[in-house]
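Discussion board: Methods & Data

I've been asked by a reviewer to show the raw model output for two of the constructs in my manuscript, not just the figures. I'm not sure how much to include, so I'm pasting the format here to get opinions. Each protein appears as its amino acid sequence followed by a line of discrete structure tokens. Is this the kind of thing reviewers expect to see in a supplement, or should I convert it first? Here is construct A:
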Amino acid sequence: MIVKAVVPVDKRKCKVFLEGDFAFVLYKSEAARFHIEEGNDLPAKTYEMIEEEILLKRARDRALYLLQSQGRTQAEMIKKLKDDGYPQSVTERVLSFLQEYHFIDDNAYTENYIHVNKGRKSKRQITYELQQKGVDRDQIRQMLEENPVDEEETVRALLKKKTGGRIPEDKKEIQKLAAFLGRKGFSFEVISRVLRDVADY
């Protein structure tokens, strides 16, 4: 493989392009160690050594570091490692390691996300946010069936927090509350039912 370009990222790191495509990021000292310069040939054995000795360990450490602060879905971790410049082959191996030891488990993540948010968010909002995190819609639907969200109870809690337990009598104010709840993804039927119960509306 021919090194097509070595592009500085900052004072310490550089991007390496092989055969015209981006390959990986190395520290400049590492690039010098493996004689990676524009126009040089990079033997397959050297590439494998870089992947095994440097990139794989670094990507695994990076993934574990990212998981210290918060849980992540598989899609989120793939994006993080890709954005950090790790090649797909390395990312796939790191994902296999994380899944084998249950550091990443989309089912467990989704179940926990629903559990944490079901008292303050609608099913629609939870579904949207999980989809944004890369969780499959069918997977979300199944988890919501197994972990049902009581939307009426959630609306009651949100109304209590919003109004301090004192529902206004003015119809315009009530309409504002309904719009607030609608923006959070609750259906018109659920909102109307709860408002009628709590405000005789």
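Construct B, same format:
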Amino acid sequence: MQRHTYATDEHQNHQESESTARQLLERAAGAEADERRRLIDEVVLLYLGLAESIARRYAGRGVERDDLLQVARLGLVAAAHRFDPSLGKDFVSFAVPTISGEVKRYFRDHGWAVRPPRRVQELAAQVSVATAEVAQTSGTTPTQAELAEHLGVEADEIREASASHDCFTAASLDYRGFNDEETSLVETLGDDEDGYDRTETMVLLAPVCRELKPRDRHILYLRFFKGRTQQEIGTELGVTQMQVSRLLTRILGQLRERVGNRPPAPGRPG
């Protein structure tokens, strides 16, 4: 009984607000600019709660709550300015899609950390609105199949649009899961392993290096394994730094030539 009374009161409040809004907008239609602005402002104040309700549907998806509220209010202002009372429709049925449209556009432009295709973005916004509509009608949260039927799309498209909500925010690399796990997200990510390239290079160069003269092999060892400078190598060998530079150029040229002329190893492309 109490629930029925509450629903009746809500309906009466809606009817009263709608009647007041229509009267204000009818007066605004034939008023001077300043008076029209004042009357429209009264309508906006009357329905601020509607704008806040629509903004709350999109909360927690990577856009600041105050920004959402501001956009929803701007949508309400736009609806009040565009509404034509002579068409006979009620203001709420016109204002809701207008406000929702402004919020959706804001999300398309600002709300995605990873931007999915536009069709997915648009369907994701439709799914959010449809979920609330179907839930209000049936009293339960709709399934993906019910949403697909309601929107006239395939269930796979609903799943894709629902999954796109994860694109609104990016997880921190320090994220440790819902149970504060020991391993952070960054520790589970793969990385490029350059050890394989080094191993393949050593396997390729080892045979041709063994074909070099002992002195040339020693110069390579000092430069690339011991990390000696050309000046330090020259001091050890009793030659100038310029001579070491020329020796290295010659040795590396021989290696490139011999590697290029060697037949490919079995299993390796030529």
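Answer (T.O., handling editor elsewhere):
This is acceptable in a supplement if you add a one-line summary per construct. For B, something like: The chain has three domains: 1-111, 112-191, 195-261.
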